[in-house]
């Protein structure tokens, strides 16, 4: 449903480009605006009346009757009820720009063979400045309140249920000219207040996730606005097509290649503040939980990086035995990366499959395309955990073959601070749980292979080659 709604909004933006020079707001201008808003659509959709425009003082009121829109584009795979017309006001500004403003509510239900969904928003307002020169919103602010979502699974997901609420949300969006001609940079950030989600499934414990607030920030650089707009137009014009013709496939391939690498960089960060995870076994609070994602454009050697950091866990007292309480981490930080992914080749493979109407691409073929060298690498520049009795950090890389008979090699460095204090804490806990004696014995044995860094931390440099030979600080520990 979301791509088709986006397509409708995109058509509106396309139309503004051609009429933004009109100084007077009148019936003729409204007619011209409506004609342009619908010119990229199929004939039956354009005639459906899902777009209406009328003068309203010094601006135009544009009404989208999305029920008529989905009635025309729906393939029968799902049905949408509860849709009501949405309004947006467009006021001409100097330099050919438009001031857009709207305030609507939503309460819809979606039925499909896989699930029944309901989604409602008590109020959602949008306001911003549209720039025809780049056919995008230069600035935009969105505020909403009273959002609710519910999903009940059907078929193989029968009995699975998800309920979520958001008390309020606000987002801002800004577009500036990039250093590259014809491209722009995007910055978007927002906050969700009082988020709550409950998930239940047959045979599994229910899980509740809540957070006082969630901060989101997204940036993208070097977006080719003209090329992306042409792709959107193509999508809108072929929205009902189940399969592209030969000429359509060639056109689609041409448009995709023009848009590559789509962006220079993409960054996303999400922070949950005062999050709470609850099951029937108990609750665990986390003061802050950060997620980060970074990616290069779709090139022959793209990089992807992920990160997760959590601080200050507060579980229910009876969830952790007293002997283990000191080992609860205060902070956990995981940073992962996958370098040199051939997304350019992957796009070629997908476009070729579309053009030839080929069967789905196998996973093995995808791996060979994405990693033409025959190897993929998972980097972990930092994996760390700290508590009152330990401070450990691991870094390195795992390299694996993408061939049928996979082989692996590993290079890692392990650093530990206050190692003797950690062993002493485990020995003390072993008084309650004797099984921990074997852990303390193993750690003492490992200390014998360690080196000491200038800052006092113990270091273990570990390698494993494709023959499974393991070395620690240059000493062979295991050979095949």
């Amino acid at each position: 449903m979301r791509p088709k709604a986006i397509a409708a909004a995109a058509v509106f933006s396309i139309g503004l480009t051609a009429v933004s020079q009109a100084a007077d707001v009148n019936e003729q201008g409204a007619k011209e605006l409506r004609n342009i808003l619908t010119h990229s659509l199929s004939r039956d959709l354009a005639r459906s009346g899902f777009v209406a425009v009328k003068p309203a003082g010094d601006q135009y009121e544009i009404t989208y009757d999305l029920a008529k829109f989905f009635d025309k584009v729906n393939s029968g795979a799902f049905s949408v009820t509860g849709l009501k017309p949405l309004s947006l006001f467009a006021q001409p500004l100097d330099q050919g720009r438009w001031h857009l403003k709207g305030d609507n509510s939503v309460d819809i239900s979606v039925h499909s063979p896989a699930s029944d969904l309901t989604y409602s928003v008590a109020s959602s307002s949008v306001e911003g400045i549209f720039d025809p020169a780049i056919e995008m919103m230069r600035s935009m602010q969105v505020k909403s309140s009273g959002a609710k979502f519910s999903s009940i699974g059907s078929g193989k997901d029968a009995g699975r249920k998800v309920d979520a609420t958001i008390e309020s949300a606000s987002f801002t969006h800004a577009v500036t000219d990039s250093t590259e001609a014809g491209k722009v940079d995007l910055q978007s950030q927002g906050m969700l207040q009082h988020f709550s989600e409950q998930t239940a499934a047959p045979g599994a414990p229910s899980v509740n996730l809540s957070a006082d607030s969630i901060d989101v920030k997204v940036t993208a650089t070097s977006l080719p606005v003209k090329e992306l707009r042409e792709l959107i137009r193509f999508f809108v014009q072929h929205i009902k097509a189940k399969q592209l013709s030969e000429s359509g496939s060639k056109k689609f391939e041409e448009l995709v290649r023009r848009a590559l690498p789509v962006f220079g960089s993409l960054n996303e960060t999400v922070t949950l503040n005062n999050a709470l995870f609850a099951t029937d076994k108990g609750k665990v609070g986390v003061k802050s939980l950060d997620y980060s994602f970074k990616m290069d454009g779709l090139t022959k050697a793209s990089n992807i990086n992920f990160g997760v950091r959590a601080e200050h866990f507060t579980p229910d007292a009876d969830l952790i035995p007293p002997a283990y309480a000191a080992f609860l981490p205060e902070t956990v930080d995981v940073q992962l990366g996958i370098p040199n992914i051939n997304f350019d080749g992957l796009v070629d493979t997908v476009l070729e499959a579309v053009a030839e109407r080929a069967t789905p691409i196998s996973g093995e073929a995808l791996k060979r395309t994405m990693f033409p060298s025959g190897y993929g690498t998972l980097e972990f520049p930092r994996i760390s955990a700290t508590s009152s009795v330990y401070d450990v950090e691991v870094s390195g890389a795992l390299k694996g073959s993408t061939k049928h008979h996979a082989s692996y090699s590993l290079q890692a460095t392990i650093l530990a601070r206050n190692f003797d204090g950690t062993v002493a804490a485990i020995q003390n806990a072993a008084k309650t749980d004797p099984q921990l004696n074997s852990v303390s014995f193993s750690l003492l044995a490992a200390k014998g292979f360690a080196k000491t860094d200038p800052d006092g931390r113990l270091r273990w440099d570990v390698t494993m080659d494709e023959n499974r030979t393991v070395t620690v600080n240059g000493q062979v520990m295991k050979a095949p």
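Residues 2-19 form the longest helix (18 residues). Residues 319-338+360-480 form one domain.
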